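Researcher: Good morning. I'm working through a list of sequences from a screen, and I'd like to move beyond sequence-only analysis. For each chain I'm collecting a predicted structure so we can compare shapes side by side. This is the next one on the list. No need for commentary yet; just the structure.
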Amino acid sequence: MQIRELSGKRLEGWRSFLLPGPEGADLGLVEEMTTKPTVLIISDRGTTGLGGPLRADEPPLDGERGDFVKFIRNVGERKGVDLGGGSYGFGKGILYNVSRCHVIVADSQCVFRGKVQRRLIGAAMGDGFQHDGVRYTGRHWLGVQDGDIAQALIDRDAEDVANALGLPKFAEGQTGTTVAIIAADLGAVRTGDSEESRNPQSAAEYIASTMMWNLWPKMLDGVDNRLKCSVKFEGFPVELPAPDHTIELRPFVDAFRKLSREGEYDIPPRRAKPTEIGRFAKVESMAPLAKHPLLALAAPFAGSARHCARMRQANLVVDYVPGEPNPNEAIQYGAVFKSAVEADRYFADAEPPTHDDWVTSGLHGTALGVIRLAARFVNANLKPTSVEVGPESQHDAALAPLAGRLAGLVGGATEGASSPGAAGREGGHRAGRGSSVRSSKPKVVEGPALVVTDGQALIQATIELPAWSTTTTVTAEPFVVIDGGIEHHASLDAPVVVGWTSLEANEFRQGADLRAGPRDERRWVVSVRPPTDAVVRLAVSVSREG
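Model: Good morning. C-alpha cells for this chain:
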C-alpha cells in the first residue's frame, strides 16, 4: 500500500485521464482534482489478476473465472472461491467509499485465454440521478468506447496510461492488480474532544498496524501463499516487524502453529457430521511491559492479551474474543480457533458483510449448531491456566511478578566497548565506518522470553551470528537498568550469563564468552539469570582474534 499527494506533472496526468467526468453525476471529481488530492494505492503481485471476459454480457468459458466482471461490473456478487475470505462481494464497495469522489482506477495484468494481457479502467459508484430526461444508476466507467459502454484499455494503451499516472509497474509476465483510490479520505484521530485529520504518515502507520493485527497468520514464515506486506507514504516505508517477534502477537502466533501439530490442539466434541468443526489452541506468555508503538495504533483490545483470534480457512482474523483476565497482570494469554475444512461454509454463512463476527441470527439446522458449539467451546476455554497449589507451583507463581518487571534482552551487537554498560576489552577490534564487521553484527532473532527451569527463572534470547571468516569472541554483558540509566552500584545483585546453547548441535558453552569459528553454528541461545525485581538489558560485544 502506498499513500501519495498528487502534484505537478503527476497530477496533470490524473486530470488528463479523469476529467471532465460524467455529466450530471455530481461526484465532486472536478473539485477534488483542483487541489492536491491524496491517492491511496493498493497493489498485489503474484496473484492471478483480474481475468476473464471484459463485458458482463459475455459468459466465461468452462473453467474460466470472471474476476474482471465481478470486481468492476457486478458489485454484490459472491466471489465463489472455495475456502476464500470474501462471501458477499460487498467488500470492494469500501474502495469507492474511501474516495471523496467515489472514483477508483484498476490496473491489472492477467493471463487471458493463454496470453498475458494488461487491463486498465476507471470506475465510479455514485448516487442515482436524472440527466436530460434519462435515469442513471450512478455506476460509471472510464476507458474506451465499446458500443454503449466504456471498456478497459488494453496492453500498450493500458501501460501508457498507468505510467502517466505513476502506478506500480509489472515485471515481464508478472500478474496481479493495482487499485488506486482517488482523493482518499485518510480518516481522523481523536485527541480529547477534538479530531485531527490523518496525514499520509499517520495513515500509513495505522494501515500497517491494521495489517499486523488482521493479516499476521498469512505473514508468517513457512505458511502457504505467504503475504509479504509493505506500506509507504510519500516513498518512505513503514517498518513492519515479524509477527512472531512482537510480544503482543507472539502468543497468538504460537497458538496458531500448534494447530498443525498433532496432540497440541483441542477439538470441540461433536457426534454428528461434521465431527470436526475447528481446532483450538492457547498459549500463555509474559505480558509486554510497554506498548509497541505501531501495534498500539490499531489494537483491537486494551491491555494485555486474554483473547482468542477466530479465523476461517482463509487465515484472516475475523475478530478477537475476550476471555477471563489473568489475576497476575504480568502474564497474558492468546488463543486461536480456526474452522475446519468440512465446516468452513457454516462459519462463512455466519459472517456479516463486514466479516468481523460470527452471528447466529438467520441460521438454522447444522449451521446453527456448529456456530453455537464453537462459541461455547471458545468461551469455556478462555481462562488462565490453573495450577495446583504446592511448594513448586508456589515458587513458580512467585516468579510471575519478576516477569512483569523484566524488560528483557535488547540485542545491540557492538564492537569493543561502544555499547552502554559494556566494558572495554583488550585486543578488541573497533571497526571503522566502512568496516565489513560493522555491517555484519550479531542480532536477536527470537525472544526475549522468560523460562522457568527446575525452579530457576532465566531470560533467553536467540542470537544469530554473521558468517565471519575468522574466529570471533562474542561476549554477552547484562546490566541492571534503573530510571536514571544504567545501575553500577555494587549493592545490587548482578545478572549472570549462564551460557550459550547451539540450536542445531544442542551444544552448551558455559559463561559469557562465546568463541565462534567459521565452521561453528550460527544460531545460539544465550541464557541470563536475572536479579530479583530488576530490569535487565544486554550488550553484545565482539572481539576478533589476531
